[in-house]
Amino acid sequence: MNRMIDYFRELERFRDRVAEALESGQIEDPEIDMGPDAKMTLSAHLERCEAARPAQPVPYDLDTELMAVITTAHLPESEVQKAPYALKRGTLIGMEREEGFLISTWPFLSDDNQTFPQMNAIRQCFHERGIEWVMFDRDGNEVEAFPTYEW
């Protein structure tokens, strides 16, 4: 975590140094390629980044957790229908949402490995990669590694 904090602080210092060099005329203001048919000057890009910065500085020492967002189509309909009840009972750790639900990737409690075999396989895959939460959302991303169900 500390290395990430150091990285973001160094990134901010670099942005500030580039902005000062542009302002003082020490470096030219080149046009940069921002993708297909999108170009802008470096100073315009820095202004855009500054405008998007939050009014209050973000404390980099906040606890953060990674979350994957994938489509509910990666689960059989039966598992999607059972999930709200398991969340209410507390056997699944997470929360129900309007268009899906969020679950912890920590191992399931009790017999939910048998109740949710596909969800458990997805949960385990993300847990092994250091992701703490999986959001199953109707409009979430499809992941090629997981099967897709029509329902």
Architecture blueprint of SSEs:
Layout: H1 2-24, E1 31-33, E2 39-41, H2 42-52, E3 67-71, H3 77-89, E4 94-97, E5 100-104, H4 112-115, H5 117-128, E6 133-137
Parallel strand pairs: 3-6
Antiparallel strand pairs: 1-2, 4-5, 5-6
Can you offer a commentary on this structure?
The chain is built from 5 helices and 6 strands. With 151 residues, the protein is α+β, with helices and mostly antiparallel strands. The model has no long low-confidence stretch (mean pLDDT 82). It folds into 2 domains: 2-52, no CATH class; 67-137, no CATH class.
Question: What would you say about this model in short?
Answer:
This protein has five helices and six strands; from the N terminus they run αββαβαββααβ. With 151 residues, it is α+β, with helices and mostly antiparallel strands.
Our count of domains comes out at 2
Label the overall shape: elongated
User: How helix-rich are the residues, as a percent range?
Assistant: 40-55%
Strand residue percentage: 15-25%
Strand runs, count? 6
**Oligomeric organization of the protein chains:** single chain
**Mind describing the biggest β-sheet?**
4 strands, mixed
Computed over alpha carbons, the radius of gyration is: 22 Å
Low-confidence stretches are none
The succession of helices and strands, N to C, reads: HEEHEHEEHHE
Mean pLDDT: 82
- End-to-end span in angstroms? 41 Å
Number of helices: 5
Query: How do the strands line up in the largest sheet?
Result: 3-6-5-4
Protein structure class: alpha+beta
